[in-house]
User: Which sequence fits this backbone?
């Protein structure tokens, strides 16, 4: 998101950007009919949609982590069940052996009727040792069964969490669809020429930002590290690719997805959301920003771009738009992060 001219998105582009399921196609009663009024409301709707989109991204990331965790726990439970089965079988074998050796009679009766008391006492010592082994195996079985029950409880708890996360995903996706549907409806109130004027203004601003970003920087104002240089080159290579909610490239991106993809080229795995990326490195003043740094926008940190030098950022702006350069000052800067 994050552009003074975000509203220049065409109806076709906005429609294509909707996540499967769509949103409302009806404008709100009393909706503004001037380009400036539409622009203000659509900007707000895109902002609300991107907040939901970042929540969606975070929930999907958590879903994947929980799926991996549940799979590990379930495998561990299966292994523990196998251990319990083997211990139970071993305990049965020990009990049968003890019975065959005379463990089934009362020890005093065994001694009274034994034709060789000395041999009986030797056998009794062996049986006592067998009893000790059987008790140890029984304790192991009980310990394993207790651990098995605990781990099954953990697995059920993680499955409950997974279901809750999936509900967040569904809710966030529905909210994105709703906000984009309302934005589309507002844009439909403008004439074709009014939308063209907004698009031309947007294109002119993007071209000016690209020209400014292309001005050579002094040597001490280049990327702060080789990794930042690699990430910047990757982001530049994505110029012109479309914005799609939840996308991490290479064909399309949302704002945090572009940062995630670009820094992966440098061997760095950033958090998936703009809020998480705000804590992925050292916070620095904007006046000290260098190419490759992350620029986090808005008080709730729902948008992010990459500093490209000369006051410009590369970012994926909003649905219907494409990755481009833009003046960082066109959006409220929350912080700058050096990865």
Assistant:
């Amino acid at each position: 998101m994050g552009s003074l001219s975000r509203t220049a998105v065409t109806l076709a582009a906005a429609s294509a950007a909707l996540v499967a399921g769509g949103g409302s196609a009806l404008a709100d009663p009393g909706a503004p009919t001037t380009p400036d009024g539409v622009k203000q409301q659509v900007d707000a709707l895109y902002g609300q949609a991107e907040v939901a989109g970042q929540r969606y991204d975070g929930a999907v990331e958590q879903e994947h982590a929980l799926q991996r965790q549940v799979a590990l726990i379930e495998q561990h439970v299966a292994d523990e069940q196998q251990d319990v089965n083997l211990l139970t079988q071993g305990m049965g074998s020990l009990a049968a052996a003890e019975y065959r050796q005379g463990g089934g009679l009362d020890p005093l009766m065994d001694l009274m009727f034994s034709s060789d008391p000395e041999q009986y006492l030797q056998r009794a010592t062996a049986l006592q040792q067998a009893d000790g082994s059987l008790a140890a195996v029984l304790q192991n079985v009980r310990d394993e069964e207790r651990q098995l029950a605990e781990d099954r409880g953990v697995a059920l708890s993680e499955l409950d969490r997974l279901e809750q996360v999936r509900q967040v995903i569904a809710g966030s996706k529905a909210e994105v669809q709703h906000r984009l549907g309302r934005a589309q409806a507002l844009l439909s109130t403008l004439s074709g020429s009014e939308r063209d004027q907004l698009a031309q203004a947007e294109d002119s601003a993007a071209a000016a930002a690209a020209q400014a970003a292309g001005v050579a920087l002094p040597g001490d104002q280049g990327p702060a590290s080789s990794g930042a240089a690699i990430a910047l080159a990757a982001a530049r290579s994505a110029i012109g690719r479309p914005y799609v909610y939840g996308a991490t490239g290479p064909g399309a991106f949302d704002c945090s997805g572009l940062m995630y993809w670009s820094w992966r080229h440098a061997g760095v795995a950033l958090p998936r959301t703009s809020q998480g990326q705000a804590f992925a490195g050292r916070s620095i003043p904007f006046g000290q920003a260098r190419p490759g740094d992350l620029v986090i926008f808005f008080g709730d940190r729902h948008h992010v771009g990459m500093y490209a030098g000369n006051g410009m950022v590369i970012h994926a702006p909003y649905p219907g738009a494409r990755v481009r350069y833009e003046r960082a000052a066109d959006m409220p800067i929350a912080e700058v992060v050096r990865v």
